[in-house]
Amino acid sequence: MFTPPLALASLSGESNADWARAGSEYAGAAFLGGIALDADARAAARELVARDRTEFIPDDPLAFIDRELEALADAPIQPAFNVRSTTPGPIVEAARICDGHDAFLEINAHCRQDELCAVGCGETLLADRERLAGYVEAAAATGATVGAKVRAEVPGVELPALARELERAGAAFVHVDAMDTESVIADITAATDLFVVANNGVRDDETVREYAEYGADAVSVGRPSDNPVVLERVHDAATRRLGERANADPSS
Q1: What's the chain's Rg over C-alpha atoms?
Q2: DSSP, residue by residue, 19-70
Q3: Residue 106 forms beta bridges with which residues?
Q4: How far apart are CA 162 and CA 160, in angstroms?
Q5: What is the pTM of this model?
Q6: pLDDT digits (tens, 9 = 90+) for 82-130
Q7: Which sign, positive or negative, has the C-alpha torsion 198, 201, 203, 208?
């Protein structure tokens, strides 16, 4: 889906077009956002800001997505946008904008802040498969390339089964925060044909090697995504361990 097989993972309030362009020397994709789309999600984001978290809260979130993607029109990187919403309508509109810019749409089923979970965003979607799959299906119907950011180690959530449902709904990829259960990547790759981006603790050759052995198609870097020393190290490892495998496999 992108090369080199290294992505920059979204950091709320920080991951904009300038951030993506700065990392484009090393990464093949950048997930901008996350951004809250509907009224409840935006209210939760404002509560997060009130306790000193950074968040994107533009007056018009859809116009913001459009502007940021337009700013990357000539950048040598595959753009994507991570979005949060408690309702499907704004996700569909965001998907249309992403499709118009040949960008991916990533539905956030990952954030675990209390404020977001209380309104039904982020991690709560992992336990509500029908709603999350409905979001994916509605967004994919626009023609956009759609996926979800998910988290391991959530009680009662079986990620391989969830990934299968998302694939049936039209997802093309899943972005997995493996937490301390890196082997979940192998479970998901065995259960689906989704493009799997492995996240959490990716810093060097050893961490890339582990995810590669579990079958990841790509890896992503979160907090050090603005650190060129880390990015160069991970880029080299991902190109060697994942890029060569992809080139050798005509079906990938």
Answers
A1: 16
A2: HHHHHTTT-SEEEEEEEE-SHHHHHHHHHHHHTT---B--S-HHHHHHHHHH
A3: 82, 147
A4: 5
A5: 0.95
A6: 999 999 999 999 999 999 999 999 999 999 999 999 999 999 999 999 9
A7: negative
Question: Are the C-beta atoms of residues 219 and 247 closer than 8 Å to each other?
Answer: no
Q: Could you give the CA distance from residue 28 to residue 20 in angstroms, rounded to a whole number?
A: 10
Alpha-carbon distance of 187 to 182, in angstroms, equals: 10
Does the N-terminal peptide bond of residue 34 adopt cis geometry, omega within 30 degrees of 0? Answer: yes
CB 17 within 8 A of CB 71: yes
DSSP string, the chain: --SSSEEEPP-TTTBSHHHHHHHTTT-SEEEEEEEE-SHHHHHHHHHHHHTT---B--S-HHHHHHHHHHTTTTSSSEEEEEEE-SSHHHHHHHHHHHHHTT-EEEEE-----HHHHHTT-GGGGGG-HHHHHHHHHHHHTTT-EEEEEEES--TT--HHHHHHHHHHHT--EEEEE-TT-TTHHHHHHHH---EEEEESS--SHHHHHHHHHTT-SEEEE-GGGG-HHHHHHHHHHHIIIIIHHHHH-TT-
pLDDT tens track for 146-185:
999 999 999 999 999 999 999 999 999 999 999 999 999 9
